[in-house]
Structures are given as structure tokens and as C-alpha cells.
Specification:
thiamine biosynthesis, HMP/HMP-P_kinase_dom, UDP-N-acetylmuramoyl-L-alanine:D-glutamate ligase, transferase, 9-stranded mixed sheet, binds (4-amino-2-methylpyrimidin-5-yl)methyl dihydrogen phosphate, alpha/beta, 37% helix, kinase
């Protein structure tokens, strides 16, 4: 039987833990056929990002059009988009092709603190992509860059979600993984009417590289299979929790989250 398809528009991580590599292994773990529009090639390992080269914007759009016109895209997600030019080209292309739901993970930097976006590009994500998104999935650092709000508790997490909704996405998921010192990791999902707190245990681990990509692509996988946003996000939270719990050391720095547990199911 032909599986559902999901498209990732994102960068490559040579270390294999984040970016399109995380997306493809997550799509596979969900029984979804992964399609790729590569935006950048990063030189990266467990210690950080040593550099990146972006793919020409017309090549990014050609990849999206090639797969959308021939294979069909049930759901799509964006990760590292590198430049404002690529963001504008992706936004325009997404108006011209059918991609089902769109999850925008506004990746700005690696967890090791290295920029994955050129400086003027965050504004382009906010103005060009958010209004086209079904769901956006910022972490707390991205929330601060996008809204100026520092999330320190449930009340500021809610204010930040409301400020983000103003940029025009249908739903916002404010991920709480970076709110350290709390026994639980609480992510807040809202469309401005419904508010859902998704809460789970915080695991003691260093190995969380690729966590954001894995969660966004798990959500995208469920959307590709026809789930609603609340159901897809709830399933994504369960999936990432287990991947964080089973994250492994690889290299001298930060290891990746692991989707390998699905092989034992
Ligand atoms: N130590 C942890 N234990 C359990 N879940 C975690 C942990 N760190 C992050 N998560 C969860 O993983 C997902 C991604 O987390 P977050 O760290 O907030 O974003 P990002 O990976 O984009 O920086 C969220 O659902 C978050 O709650
Ligand atoms: C190509 C690429 N895309 C995304 C991330 C973010 O992942 P993380 O926050 O885990 O470093 C990354 N490091 N590299």
C-alpha cells in the first residue's frame, strides 16, 4: 500500500541527529514516505555547527514543485531555511502547490548556539511563513527572538502564545523544554480559543540534539495521516518524550534523541 507523504524543507546535519536526517528517520518511524527540499548543507557534529552553505533559492523551489506536482504532499514542515531569499521563495511556492497542512518550526540557531539563519531572515519567517502556517512550533529561545517575551512560567508562556498568534498562524505550540528547573516539560498549544497544556516528565539527559525537528516531524507525520492538530501534537509529545528518554551519547558533545525504540514495538 502506498504510504502517506510528508515533505521536509530543511537543512542537512552531517552529524545525522537534526535537520532532514531527523525528519526522515521520524517520518520512517511513523510509516510515512519522506520527501525533501534541501535548503542548506551544514558542517556539524556533536560539538556544534562549523559552518553552512545555502542551496540557491530556485533549486529549493524546484525541489518542492517537483515532488508536489508528481507525488503529492499530504503535509509539510519547514526547519532550517538559512536566508530571507529562501524563505520568500518557499512562501511563494507554497502558494502555488498543494501541501496539505504546514508546520513551521522557526529554527534560528542550533542548541549549541550557532546561527542557522542569516540576520535579516527571522523577520521573513514571521511575515512570510507564519501567516501560511497551520502550526508554528517555537522553543523558548525562538519565542524570545520573535516576540521579545521571556517565558518563565505558565502565565508568560500563555502571553507569548497569544503574541505569536498575532503573526497569523492557525495554531501555536510554545515548547517548554528550555524552562529548566521544573520537574515537568510543559508545552502549550492554542488557536486562541482552545488552550491545551501538554505535560510530561523532564528526563535528566544531555542528549537532546534534534529534539525540536523530531517533534515537528512527528506532528507532521500524524497530520499527513489525517489527524487533527490537537491529536497530532498530543501524539508528537508522546513520541518525542520517548525519543528524549532514549537519547544516546555520540561524539564528545551533545548526542541525538533516538527514534530507534519504534523498532522494538
Ligand atoms: N529533558 C527533557 N525531558 C523530556 N522532554 C523534553 C526534554 N527536553 C525537551 N523535551 C520536550 O521535547 C520537545 C522539544 O523541546 P524543546 O527543548 O522545548 O525545543 P527544541 O528542541 O526545539 O529546542 C518538547 O515537547 C519538550 O517538552
Ligand atoms: C540542519 C539543522 N537543522 C536544525 C538544527 C536544530 O537542531 P538542534 O536545536 O537540536 O541543534 C540543526 N542543529 N541543524
Amino acid at each position: 500500500m502506498t504510504p502517506p507523504t510528508a515533505l521536509t524543507i530543511a537543512g542537512s546535519d552531517s552529524g545525522g541527529g537534526a535537520g532532514i536526517q531527523a525528519d526522515l528517520r521520524t517520518f520512517f518511524a511513523h510509516g510515512v514516505h519522506g520527501l525533501v527540499a534541501l535548503t542548506a548543507v551544514t558542517v556539524q557534529n556533536s560539538l556544534g555547527v562549523q559552518g553552512f552553505t545555502e542551496i540557491p533559492a530556485d533549486v529549493v523551489t524546484a525541489q518542492i514543485k517537483a515532488v508536489a506536482s508528481d507525488m503529492g504532499v499530504n503535509a509539510a514542515k519547514t526547519g532550517m531555511l538559512a536566508t530571507a531569499e529562501i524563505i520568500r521563495a518557499v512562501a511563494k511556492t507554497l502558494d502555488e502547490v498543494e501541501v496539505g497542512s504546514l508546520v513551521v518550526d522557526p529554527v534560528a540557531a542550533s542548541m549549541t548556539g550557532h546561527a542557522l539563519l542569516r540576520e535579516d531572515a527571522l523577520e521573513a519567517i514571521r511575515t512570510e511563513l507564519f501567516p501560511r502556517a497551520t502550526l508554528i512550533t517555537p522553543n523558548l529561545d525562538e519565542v524570545r527572538l520573535l516576540t521579545g517575551i521571556s517565558v518563565v512560567d505558565a502565565a508568560s508562556q500563555r502571553s507569548a502564545a497569544e503574541a505569536l498568534l498575532e503573526f497569523g498562524s492557525r495554531w501555536v505550540l510554545v515548547k517548554g523544554g528550555h524552562l529548566v528547573g521544573t520537574p515537568e516539560c510543559v508545552d502549550l498549544l492554542t488557536d486562541g480559543r482552545e488552550y491545551r497544556e501538554l505535560s510530561g516528565p523532564r528526563y535528566e539527559t544531555e542528549n537532546t540534539h534534534g529534539g525540536g525537528d523530531t517533534m515537528a516531524s512527528a506532528i507532521t507525520s500524524s497530520l499527513a495521516k489525517g489527524a487533527s492538530i490537537p491529536d497530532a501534537v498530543a501524539a508528537g509529545k508522546k513520541f518525542i518524550e520517548r525519543c528524549v528518554a532514549e537519547g544516546y551519547s555520540l561524539g564528545a558533545g551533545v548526542g541525538p534523541v533516538s527514534p530507534f525504540w519504534v523498532l522494538d514495538r
